[in-house]
Amino acid sequence: MPEDDLVELKFRLYDGTDIGPIRYPAASTVAMLKERILSEWPRDEKITPKAASDLRLISGGRILENHKTITQCQMPFGELPGGAMTMHVVVQPSVTSAKTEKRVKEQPRKASCSCCIL
Description:
By secondary structure, the protein is α+β, with helices and mostly antiparallel strands. It contains three helices and five strands. The protein has helices at residues 30-40, 70-73, 95-105; strands at residues 6-12, 18-25, 55-59, 62-63, 85-91. Strands 2-1-5-3-4 form a five-stranded mixed beta sheet, with helices on one face. The longest helix is centred in the N-terminal third of the chain and has 11 residues, at 30-40. The radius of gyration is 21 Å and the shape is elongated.
């Protein structure tokens, strides 16, 4: 694989720590990057994604779509030649799992009246 086809990326997590920099083929998709991030995620973090679908990658202020390649996501400005491109990682649990967890945490309410008749 030619050296020109590799892109150096690092991923900034919510607490300011980084994963990388690591060199990836320019044809890698965002979904492939998310899988790699999930496998490299620090185990001692408070917030941990359960699946790659819980991750959002942001580059240049845009949320990247899973089917896009690194080449399609690169910004034409702001990146230094030979420098690593930084993508921000946000953990956003899927809606269905968040609703399920919320239902489990809610306690059943007891029907009681606190009225006092004088």
